[in-house]
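Late entry, adenosine-5'-diphosphate complex.
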Amino acid sequence: MTAEVIVDIAHSEVDRIFEYRAVEGTEEGCRVKVPFGNRIVDGFVMRLKEGSDFDASKLKSIVRVIDRALTKECLALVHSISERYHCSKALTLRLFLPSEMRKGAVRELFKTYAVLKDGQAEIPARAKAQAAAYAFVCENPRFGYTELCEKFGRGAVNALAERGTIVLEKERVNRSPYAGAEIKAPAHSLTQAQKNAVSTILSSEKRVHLLHGVTGSGKTEIYLTLIAKMLDEGKSAVFLVPEISLTPQMSMQLRARFSDRVAILHSGLSAGEKFDEWWRLRTGEAKIAVGARSAIFAPVENIGVIVIDEEHDGSYASEQNPRYNAQEIALLRAQYNDCKLILGSATPSVETYRKAAEGEYGLIELPERINKRPLPEVIIADMRREVRRGNNTPFSAALRDELESCLAEGNQAIIFLNRRGFAQSVVCRDCGNVLKCEQCDVSLTYHSEEGCLKCHYCGASYRMPTACPACGGVHLSYTGTGTQKVVGELKKLYPSARILRMDVDTTSGKEGHYKILKKFADREADILVGTQMIAKGHDFPAVTLVGILDADMSLHFSDYRSGERTFQLITQVAGRSGRAQEQGKVVLQTYDPENYILRFAVNYDYKGFFRHEISVRKATAFPPFAKIVRVMVTGEEDKKALGSLKEVYFSLKELFEAHRDKFLFFNKMRSPVKRIQNKFRYQVLMRLTDDALLPEIYARALAGKTRDVLVYVEENPANLS
Ligand code: ADP
Ligand code: ZN
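Prediction complete; structure with ligand written out below:
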């Protein structure tokens, strides 16, 4: 037999099939070791066939089979995915495997047991240790080999084995990340609205459904019911959440409901745990894959339902090559498996909602919270008035009043601010110089706890200078408020309140997020201050107040999605308030109280927001009525990067000249952030009427790659900086 193999080398030059002679055990989907040039490399068996397109006698043989990692489905989808994102098959195949496994750094873990075989052993009288070990094994007919050796000595145990009294058996062990962390989450009996949602989805012809339900409307229970149904039918499920460390409650709920039929694919796991969880899915021992974006490649077969919770979340689009979108992959998998895809959100993306409104997707609306609990009341605080009144703290009078009564009643509060650190930037009052990162064209943020300046783009950290590096002046001042400063101010105002802070700086380490969330859930703190990390899906019953300090900050980014993002963020953060018995409140601070986006958010008017937003997008020809394509050209040498940019630009310009009717916009420029991590950044920015020219754009852009200059293509990028 001949094996068609893709070698695991990312270069496009070797991105084709190589033929090898199959060896025993070679199957389609196997990972294998093959000779390539004068090296031995990993490869993937895509297909087995009789005969060869070449001289069969000259074919080299596969060296050995590593494992059967790839599913049939993976082999079937690789081609369309690599074509869609214009990346090599090897790179595409890597998406389907945990990276640890490719590096060969982890293996299965085995434990050896000593198992009693021969009931009547004749042990010489002088072999005291053997006799003791024998007596012990009679009592414990299956016992860990290592532990037994520790008790009675390796010599004695091995002697028993030689005698045939015991045999040594190897057994695979799973390194389970959540052993011992079992909690119980009883299944609720579904409300009528939930029942309707489930039956609509199951009976509908449509493959994809948008579950648009306000925060606290019980979407989770609908997902779980659908998954349970599919398991009953012998099928499997994939469940995506935006960031798994931010949503421990969701994974715990799944574990509680489905115990070890759930496998959690989580970047915070140890390499061994990841490996074992992945194999539990691959072998079919586990049926439900839970994880963030990359879990969409989970090796489950015969899928019954794919759930994407918080479908609007930006994290579902990869910002690394290949820049895939998990929703697109989910759709491919749903088609392949002929199964349901559920997109859930309280604030669906404009693109998704439009598809649902136009009937391409099924639409299920849950406009009320469970048990008709009211949505929190939103109070708008006009910060311009506060400033005029001489209030220069980050808190409005309204927020302070509400905080006081919230704390007095023994409830919890969340304060949201989308900026970490102490001060956004440091400015020299003598010369106006703003302190900037040496490697990036961005201002540095002052972090008071660490007493240093940090770059939020590359993570570099600098000592706080005593004088301005430009003019030597010593009058450095801080502008803009960050989470650290807010905590300091809160401590001054409420000395007895217990305050937690959650942002990138406090959540490092394997369980960083979990620890803070658990502390807050266990009522070990009264106030949680945090960045957008705290906006996602958490369910803290004692929270009755949410303060949003700078509701309009994200409104002023020069990005067509800033209105949508602001609406989503406010709705999501507000949704953390008043989820249990007590009525929740939200204080929303803004310098722009008349802004239409804020008005829609305050009234929980998603449809109003959508109608407005979609008409703006249509009038201005932005997505979903157009596609934004950005070709990024970056390199450490400015000249070389600029050279490549020109090349790419002229090549694309030909296309533009030939198809002017397809272009709404076409230009080249420096990127808004001119340099990141020492790399100069240029871009060709385009707006297209449709996707027809995409393949040609990719081809022309990627041809501009050189050894020193990186070129990549982004479609509707989440971030245009
Ligand atoms: P969402 O995901 O839509 O924000 P959740 O699924 O978190 O909402 O549900 C909100 C709250 O309602 C949770 O505390 C959940 O336990 C509860 N809940 C959900 N379904 C039911 C039900 N059928 N009966 C009673 N309580 C429910
Ligand atoms: Zn930097």
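The chain has a mean pLDDT of 89. Will revisit in the morning.
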